[in-house]
Specification:
alpha/beta, 3 domains, three-stranded parallel β-sheet, 14 strands, elongated, binds zinc ion, CHLI-like, Magnesium chelatase family protein
Length: about 400
């Protein structure tokens, strides 16, 4: 009964003129849809078989040619169900212990990971901005099964799924260049719509190095999708919506001449410096809770002392505990991270004790802190309290959070 079999069967793949069945993008979401629609079997290109076999409740048959499909349907050579190879453990991520002499930066990525805060790193070339950003995903909890399938499906459609890793289990890291087009950053393309770097960073980290070099329009475009957690891309061929709950890390040099020696060797005019920094203000920067200025690494190393830097495993343990405490406190609000707490709750149910806030209130009165800035200080202070094992932020936590706000870059 080949006809009946064909009715039940879903065939995926690209057919070559020679009859070869070639791999395609987007196999995982297609197979998920087929399984949901009640199809018992799917035939996929052999190269996509491990990816397809991630889906429960549907039998995967792997083929290399059309001839194999025909022989199977005719009952001449029946294909066996494809068994997925064990998902290999991902290669160890870059370790935070490798970042020597940057205690300020290491502290910043720990806080960002614990509270889910977007992070802005300012500092001279060689201060370790990229190294620090690359280590943030390793501090985040691994993806649970649902999240892993979501992230893998996006990379499957984008065509960026590594052939040796059918399932992505770690938070992804995406670092588009400042010359990237809007389509490369957000999504688009001709023909089949491809998710951009923002979507590929879903449940992971989107790193924009040399942020002031990105066109302002591009930066402003990111704000709304980041707030909503999803982006809809429309083309003549149709539209597609992808999730994009990514954590943002922005990095910038202190000025356009980017002197590694710091301010003393800067050759920029005051106007050039002002113009450069003005590119760092606006609706996107307004969403960044943590703004940290990294000292040049030689001085930082000295300030750091000679202690061995903590490893990713040690810091990730603190991050996990802090996240658990925050999630428990926020239970019932629909939120899990301090970065998500709206101002309304920070002034109500989650207001730090009045006595702790004295320093921040004075900054507010002086005009050194905006009302939104005041909220951001409180969000960060809650994360600092969670990391320190305190039930509420004290004056110390408010002071440290203020120090991460009142920077001369993009204050
Ligand atoms: Zn300069």
């Amino acid at each position: 009964m080949p006809g009946e079999a064909i009715d039940q069967l879903v065939l995926l793949g690209e057919l070559g003129l020679d009859g070869a069945v070639r791999p395609i993008r987007g196999v995982l979401p297609s197979v998920l849809a087929a399984a949901r629609a009640g199809h018992p079997q799917v035939v996929v290109p052999a190269a996509n078989a491990d990816e397809a076999a991630l889906v429960e409740g549907i039998e995967v048959l792997a083929v290399r040619s059309l001839e194999e499909v025909v022989a199977h349907l005719a009952g001449r050579r029946v294909l066996a169900r494809h068994e997925r190879a064990a998902v290999p453990a991902p290669a160890p991520a870059a370790d935070l212990g490798d970042v020597v002499g940057q205690s300020v930066g290491r502290r910043a990525v720990e806080i960002a990971a614990a509270g889910g805060h977007h992070l802005f790193l300012a500092g001279p070339p060689g201060a370790g901005k990229t190294m620090l950003a690359e280590r943030l995903p390793g501090l985040l909890p691994p993806l649970d099964e649902q999240a892993a399938l979501e992230v893998t499906a996006i990379h499957s459609i984008a065509g960026t799924l590594p052939s040796d890793a059918p399932l992505l289990t770690r938070p992804p890291f995406e670092a588009p260049h400042h010359s990237a087009t809007m389509a490369a950053l957000v999504g688009g393309g001709s023909g089949q719509i491809r998710p951009g770097a923002l979507c590929r960073a879903h449940r992971g980290v989107l790193f924009l190095d040399e942020t002031p070099e990105f066109p302002r329009a591009v930066l402003d475009t990111l704000r709304q999708p980041l707030e909503r957690g999803e982006v809809t891309i429309s083309r003549a061929s149709g539209s597609a919506t992808f999730p994009c709950r990514a954590q943002l890390v922005l990095a910038a040099n202190p000025c356009p001449c980017a002197s590694a020696a710091g301010d003393a060797a800067c050759t920029c005019s005051p106007l050039e410096r002002r113009r450069y920094r003005s590119r760092l203000s606006g609706p996107l920067l307004d969403r960044i809770d943590l703004r940290v200025e990294l000292p040049p690494v030689t001085r930082a190393a000295w300030l750091d002392g000679l202690g061995e830097p903590e490893s990713t495993a040690v810091v990730a343990g603190r991050v996990r505990r802090a996240r658990a405490v925050a999630a428990q406190r926020l239970a019932g609000t629909g939120l899990t991270l301090n970065s998500q707490v709206p101002g309304r709750l920070l002034r109500g149910r989650f207001a730090p004790p009045r006595a702790s806030l004295a320093l921040a209130e004075r900054a507010l009165e002086r005009g050194a802190l905006s009302v939104r800035g005041f909220d951001r200080v409180q969000r960060v202070a809650w994360t600092l309290a969670d990391l320190a094992g305190r039930t509420v932020p004290g004056a110390d936590e408010i002071a440290e959070a203020l120090g991460m706000r009142l920077q001369r870059v993009a204050a």
